[in-house]
């Protein structure tokens, strides 16, 4: 029996605005699509937060025994400035400024993205498709949407006809926007006069001579619209209807709204069963964003090389900080908040490190391990409530410390369950790493210092056999002692 058969997950579905029972389309299998980064600059910590929320969700599904196909794309074309249909492609703009090939920009920031996610202990997705690798698929979809009467050609570009679509569908079903309001509020910008209506959006854009990222199509040389790539890649790998589509909250409109419209106009199915949106990371109360400069880079946090922080923080501390907030809550980043998370993380790791040395006993205990374990699952089953899970982990920390102090007990069977459950939630699901934390490296250095003073004592007593033995045996395990005029120092290989 798979674990998922014992657990009913509730997911907050953005399209219904409420928590719903999660039932995958194909039993035991989950199709998950998450909009990936636009690779025109280094990912900032806000981006990392959204991807981390879905990494945790992916990890939990896998823990429960689901077979998950997790598709997270790379946007390497079509995403224009201001998320609009006008302006320069973000990647082409960077390439122009830096005097690089657009694909050099893509390569550079895709590598940065992967390195960053590795540093934060992310699991790789099952498929990581690129927009430029799916131009053919996008052209085919556009042809069919035109045939179905929901898109039109204008001056070498193809636009999605929102009003026509809305006659038989509900444009605004996800974001709650009303078509009348959109019509009032969408201004016609210069150069957008090709559109029948300003709220129409581009499926394909004619490439002006200066637009260097360009592909041939039945409508001339051009490039695909940003929204279409996700429809093409999600459908190709997960089917016309799949379980979960995720992304940051800022993508709900227009990006995800347009994805629904494109899919329905193309194959007449609602493409996604559960829409999940992760909330924003803020800095000084404002959304972290590449464009405004109000952001912090992962490398700056790890090194501490920024005036926003008093010191550097390990990736696991940052991960713990993020997991202390629910993925649907806004989280504000600050030095104080990270310092507090570091303390909490340390406390958790210290407790886990003494866990193997605890001994079981038959004496009575007032901590019910199986009820606690169930509460950990309940927290995750309730729309992935990691802050509640972490509160449960801290009640476990308290219990571990009581057992250590001899004020509480655990029997052998419970000890095994307790250890396995903690490992699963802390390392497999939250994705934290028990790095050799400051306190454990302090302990190692204290231990070596102790051996050095014992060796000095032996030398004073002219017990050279013992003093040599200490030095040689330390050397065997890779710890070199060096006698200098200021005393003995050591180095670890
Ligand atoms: P982009 O590369 O701009 O397309 O963004 C990649 C992902 O990061 C998207 O899912 C965005 O919604 C998400 N994102 C952007 N800014 C933030 C932020 N401040 N906090 C959380 N997620 C963000
Ligand atoms: Zn997308």
3D structure, described in words:
With 493 residues, the protein is an alpha/beta fold. A 4-stranded parallel β-sheet has the order 4-3-9-10, with helices on both faces. The protein is built from 16 helices and 15 strands. Bound molecules: adenosine monophosphate and zinc ion. Zinc ion (ZN) binds next to loops.
Short key terms for the protein model shown above:
alpha/beta; 4-stranded antiparallel beta sheet; single chain; binds adenosine monophosphate; 493 residues; 14% strand; binds zinc ion
Q: What is the C-alpha radius of gyration, as a whole number of Å?
A: 28 Å
The protein's oligomeric status is single chain
**Count of distinct strands:** 15
Unique bound compounds? adenosine monophosphate, zinc ion
Contiguous helical run count:
16
- Could you give the distance between the termini? 46 Å
Largest sheet: 4 strands, parallel
Structural class: alpha/beta
Q: Overall mean pLDDT score?
A: 93
Strand content: 5-15%
Strand order of the largest sheet: 4-3-9-10
* Overall body shape: elongated
Poorly predicted parts: none
The proportion of residues forming helix, as a percent range, comes to: 40-55%
List the helices and strands and how they pair.
Elements (H helix, E strand, L loop, with lengths): L9 E4 L4 E4 L7 E6 L10 H19 L3 E6 L17 H9 L3 H18 L15 H13 L3 E4 L2 E4 L1 H7 L10 H7 L15 E6 L15 E3 L1 H13 L3 E7 L3 H16 L4 E7 L2 E3 L2 E2 L10 H6 L11 H9 L7 E3 L1 H20 L14 H13 L4 H20 L6 H18 L8 H23 L3 H13 L2 E6 L2 E6 L1
Parallel strand pairs: 3-4, 3-9, 9-10, 11-13
Antiparallel strand pairs: 1-2, 5-6, 6-7, 7-8, 11-12, 14-15
Helix pairs in contact: 2-3, 4-7, 7-8, 10-11, 11-13, 12-13, 12-14, 15-16
The structure holds adenosine monophosphate and zinc ion (ZN).
Zinc ion binds next to loops.
């Amino acid at each position: 029996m798979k674990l998922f058969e014992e657990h009913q997950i509730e997911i907050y579905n953005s399209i219904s605005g409420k928590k719903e029972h999660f039932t995958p389309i194909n039993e035991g299998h989950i199709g998950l699509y998450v909009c990936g980064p636009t690779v025109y600059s280094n990912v900032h910590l806000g981006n990392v937060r959204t991807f981390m929320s879905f990494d945790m969700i992916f990890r939990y599904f896998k823990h429960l025994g689901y077979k998950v196909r997790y598709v997270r794309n790379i946007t390497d074309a079509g995403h224009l400035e201001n998320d609009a249909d006008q302006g320069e492609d973000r990647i082409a703009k960077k390439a122009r400024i830096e005097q690089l090939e657009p694909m050099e920009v893509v390569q550079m920031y895709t590598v940065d993205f992967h390195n960053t996610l590795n540093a934060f202990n992310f699991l790789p997705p099952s498929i990581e498709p690129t927009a430029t690798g799916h131009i053919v698929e996008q052209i085919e979809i556009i042809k069919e949407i035109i045939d179905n009467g929901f898109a039109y050609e204008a001056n070498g570009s193809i636009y999605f006809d929102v009003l026509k679509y809305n006659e038989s569908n509900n444009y605004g079903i996800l974001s709650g926007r009303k078509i009348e309001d959109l019509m009032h509020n969408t201004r016609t910008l210069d150069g957008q006069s090709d559109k029948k209506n300003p709220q129409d959006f581009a499926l394909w854009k004619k490439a002006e001579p200066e637009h260097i990222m360009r592909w041939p199509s039945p409508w001339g040389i051009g490039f695909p619209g940003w929204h279409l790539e996700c429809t093409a890649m999600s459908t190709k790998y997960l089917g016309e209807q799949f379980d979960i589509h995720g992304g940051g909250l800022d993508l709900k409109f227009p990006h995800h709204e347009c994805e629904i419209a494109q899919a329905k106009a193309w194959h007449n199915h609602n493409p996604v069963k559960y829409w999940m949106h992760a909330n924003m990371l803020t800095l000084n109360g404002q959304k972290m964003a590449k464009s405004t400069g109000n952001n912090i880079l992962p490398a700056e946090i790890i090194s501490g090389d920024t005036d926003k922080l008093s010191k550097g923080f390990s990736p696991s501390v940052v991960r713990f900080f993020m997991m202390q907030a629910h993925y649907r809550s806004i989280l504000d980043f600050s030095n104080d908040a990270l310092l507090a998370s570091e303390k909490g993380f340390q406390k958790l790791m210290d407790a886990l490190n003494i866990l193997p040395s605890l001994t079981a006993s038959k004496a009575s205990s007032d901590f019910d391990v199986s009820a606690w374990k169930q509460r950990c699952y309940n927290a995750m089953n309730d729309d992935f409530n990691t802050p509640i899970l972490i509160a449960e982990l801290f009640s476990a920390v308290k219990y571990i410390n009581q057992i250590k102090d001899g004020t509480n007990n655990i029997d052998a069977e419970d000890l095994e369950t307790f250890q396995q459950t903690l490992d699963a939630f802390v390392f497999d699901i939250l994705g934290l790493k028990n790095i050799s934390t400051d306190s454990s490296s302090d302990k190692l250095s204290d231990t070596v210092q102790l051996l050095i003073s014992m060796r000095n004592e032996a030398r004073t007593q002219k017990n050279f056999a013992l003093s040599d033995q200490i030095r040689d045996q330390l050397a065997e395990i890779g710890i070199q002692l060096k006698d200098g005029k200021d005393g003995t120092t050591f180095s670890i290989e």
